[in-house]
Amino acid sequence: MKHRLRRPLCLVLPTLIVCAPALAGGPKAGASAELAVLETTDLHSAVVGYDYFKLADDPSLGLDRTASLIAQARRDFPNTLLFDNGDTIQGNALGDYQATVEPLRCGQLLGIYKAMQKIGYDGIGIGNHDFNFGLAYLGQVTGQHLDVEGVPDKHCAGPGFPVVLANVYSSKTHKPLFTPYRILTKRIKAVDANGKPFEASVKVGIIGFTPPAILNWDRRWLEGKIYTEGLVETAQRYLPEMRAKGAELVVAISHGGLDDSPYSPTMENGNYYLAQLGAQAGGTRGGIDALLLGHSHQPFPNPSSSVAQFNLAHVDKVKGRVFGVPTVMANLWGKNLGVVRLQLRYDGKRWHADRDAAIVENRTTQQPDKHYVAPDPRVMALVREEHEATIRYVKTPIGSADFRMSTYFADVGDVSAIQVVNQAQADYVRRYVAANLPQYAKLPVLSVSAPFKSGSAGAADYTDVAAGDLALNNAADLYLYPNALAVVKVDGAALKAWLEKAASRFNTIDPDQTTPQELVDTGFAGYNFDTVTAPELSYEIDVTQPPGRRIQNLLLRGAPLAAGQEFLVATNNYRASGGGKFPGLDGSRTVWASPDASRDVLIAYIKEAKRLTRAANGAQRSWRFKKVQTKGPVVFHSAPGKLELARAAGLDNVSQLAADDGQGKGFALYAVDLGK
Q1: Rounded distance between C-alpha atoms, residue 629 and residue 412, angstroms
Q2: pTM above 0.70, yes or no
Q3: pLDDT (tens digit, 9 = 90+) per residue, 218-238?
Q4: How distant, in Å, are the alpha carbons of 476, 499, 653 from that of 649?
Q5: 212: preceding bond cis by omega (within 30 degrees)
Q6: Do 559 and 435 share a domain, yes or no?
Q7: Do residue 498 and residue 416 come from a single domain?
Q8: Which of 362, 406, 584, 667 gets the highest tally of CB atoms within 10 A of its CB?
Q9: pLDDT one-digit tens code per residue, 316-329
């Protein structure tokens, strides 16, 4: 029996004729289509390709360039959906400016959301750093009413696209803080079993997840207001419900990476187990058709990746699969666009995605000839006013320095960009303790900080503050994150365990190996390489020993540190509350959580000091590598042509082996002589 087209139904009005479209019936069994799911993640407020620390254009980053990749993908594929995976509103001076310096009014739209609205996002998730400015601000800029204690009940302009987050709940209502999922109806171009084109609709469910550890990392904003649930438990609740409500496809927007450690509802990167669940539960029982990752600042798939989380069992870093589920992670700062091309088939009742046929890719703004795609000029036009206001703000002078502060060689002992942070934190804590915590007045005060920028995002991703006048942008370069200062009480044994964990930054070196050995374990984040720069403390790191047995000759004022010796240690709220999984640091040792941002503490210290000198503020090393003769070179990677900075820091055991390390990422190859 032939299916005849129905004639359009037309209604004649006095001034126009309105016609309903002709109905040709729904899709038939055997129809097929391709739907490209596009992902950005960890944009960190990088709306345009500009480095507010260096006050210079940076073509390697920015949503304005990703917008060009998005436009190309939309030309390449007839059917696309575009999602962002969180860590969107925080991360650079523009984000800080709009949140804390010139806070947005209720009727204003956040700069990065302006761009995303213009580009045409179909939905977003929420990352851990999106909580950094508190729940009131997060609710305001996303246009969501977050029903929690202490957050004003006001309805502000949001970006207009769906915001989903399923595993965070209000302590007041015991309901999800955000809408846990949405089911989108997407019109697609398809072909029938005979290859004839037609249009149809497919229902795509999107569900959001964020690391449960937010409750520790942003305890000052979140404690008593929200609680979290594990990814697996949340998925078991909502995925079948989404299918029952008509979702033919499910896309999980999960801000996290992969970890095959035993599952815990509080684990930071639980997507290994989320993918396993999504692979096992198929069809109407709640499977996952595409998994979007983030948080780890890496591209996936990536055949050449040596990152541990992409070299696990059931993870295919070539085809982009985790337990067979098509999976993508789009790096950070808009450098990449993740693409999951789902191949759809209609079975007569609903659309299905063929997991095995999916094609997963990462498109990068840097082209094979090393140039970058052109930015979309509409993006800068949208945010020019706040962009220029941010530049004016970060130029505010705060002091001067007679030396260059950088992290190019922080992994081998340069503390030029770390010591002043430690000094500022320790000075702040000593003053506060003297005035407010007399019970701790006799305890020594130490401070730890880390090289927050150590090349993880490329050869330009290092702190580099020139000698001369210092401004707010320089302080933001020295202290990248909007952390708050925190003070923990530890004993000598706990301090040693802390330093042992930090020393996991290094690979284990075999002295008898004649071929080159990599010093740095790039899977261990540079911002977790906590460093002490106090004259009263000294220690050695023996990289020939396995992690956990590397800290040797730990001395306090020249004498072996007693296990029971108590300290106050100045750090940040992230570390004090469990960030980085340092032993014993879970919030229980915190004796004071300061309301002041760590960066503000640093700025106040520099203002009071007026002029920093290398001798007083950039040369005090508490740690050294234990001397060992190696038969082959021990190598590491940093920006090329910086050897004079190593020399200025007193690192005479460092040499540059090649200006290009051959990996195509702009790094040079250096060696460190551990025998010197």
Answers
A1: 16
A2: yes
A3: 888 999 999 999 999 999 999
A4: 22, 22, 11
A5: no
A6: yes
A7: yes
A8: 406
A9: 999 999 999 999 99
